[in-house]
Amino acid sequence: CALAILNTDSEKGDPAKISADYSDFDIRVIPQPRGLRLELFNAPTQSFVDGKMIHGIQEHLFSALRDIVYTDFKITAVQTQPLSPAQTTNTVFRILRNARVVRPDQSPRMVVCWGGHSIPREEYDYAKHVGYELGLRGLDIVTGCGIGAMKGPMKGAAVGHAKQQIKDGRYIGISEPGIIASESPNAIVNELVIMPDIEKRLEAFVRLAHAVIVFPGGVGTVEEILYLLSILMHPDNNEAIPLVFAGPESCRNYFQALEQFLVDCLGPGVKRHYRVIVGAPEEVGRAIRAAIEDVHARRRAAQQAYYFNWELQIPAGLQ
């Protein structure tokens, strides 16, 4: 994980080749009176400027150390039997709280963005434009922290935040050890969280989300869509998470095929749980802003937490 993080923005995308090229890379943990110091040997040079590590990469490195050590010593080490659904949710919350991602003093503004990491330039530019519209509306971005449809919204939102003079914009990347070891976090991420496995990573997304945007992607993106729809269609979940499928005009056929697949598998009622917007990034921004205002009003009336959706019922099979 450390080597992958140090390769952020590298031209090399093959984890096997990276490991081979840096076979002499080593990392040691040095105890200090007020914490830990990491000593690196033969680290990738692009992580340094004039002999000093880039601050964002340094923070990502310590985020990985923090989450992996916390999970192993405070959670996994004390487990003696399989977790119940409530215990699994509590584990997700504890990891996010330890990473200081859950913050009780902020109104709802978290938009989860899913989509492909290997996408054409047109789709990347569209995702960036949507992110820009979200940033102008004061919304924060949560993604899988990689490139493509995960980097685009963050990059666009950073410009939107800058125009609105928003100094505390949040670009949260949620990953897990197997993914981050093969896909470096993008440099826009300013809050990195490493969940212990894919299932807890997915639950972290939906528990944090005030709205979800899905851009075109591959089988991993479809898996995320099916996961979310299986939660939204659960009879015990009255408070829906707003879901928008969005992409440029060139992706119209993709969404038609996706919708036909969903209807064939899950029935026509599935259409109630999402909205498709092709093109029109401004419309996506307006729709998400309005949906989050509705979420804010519902949670305030029900006296529910803004920062973690405890009320959402996630079946044990999904966990």
Task: Draw up the topology in text.
Layout: H1 2-6, H2 15-21, E1 26-32, E2 35-41, E3 48-49, E4 52-53, H3 55-75, H4 85-98, E5 110-114, H5 121-136, E6 140-143, H6 151-163, E7 171-175, H7 177-180, E8 191-194, H8 198-208, E9 211-214, H9 219-232, E10 243-247, H10 252-266, E11 275-278, H11 281-302
Parallel strand pairs: 5-6, 5-9, 6-7, 7-8, 9-10, 10-11
Antiparallel strand pairs: 1-2, 3-4
Helix pairs in contact: 4-8, 5-6, 5-11
What is the H/E string? HHEEEEHHEHEHEHEHEHEHEH
Provide the residue-averaged pLDDT.
92
Number of separate helices: 11
End-to-end gap:
24 Å
Compute the gyration radius: what is it?
20 Å
How would you describe this protein?
- The chain has 319 residues and is α/β, with parallel strands linked by helices.
- It is 45% helix and 15% strand.
- It contains 11 helices and 11 strands.
- It has helices at 2-6, 15-21, 55-75, 85-98, 121-136, 151-163, 177-180, 198-208, 219-232, 252-266, 281-302, and strands at residues 26-32, 35-41, 48-49, 52-53, 110-114, 140-143, 171-175, 191-194, 211-214, 243-247, 275-278.
- Strands 8-7-6-5-9-10-11 form a 7-stranded parallel β-sheet, sandwiched between helices. Strands 1-2 form a two-stranded antiparallel ribbon.
- Helix 10 (252-266) links the parallel strand 10 (243-247) and strand 11.
- Helix 5 (121-136) packs across helix 11 (281-302).
- The longest helix is centred in the C-terminal third of the chain and has 22 residues, at 281-302.
- It is globular, with a radius of gyration of 20 Å.
- The protein starts with a helix and ends in a 17-residue tail after the last helix.
- The mean pLDDT is 92.
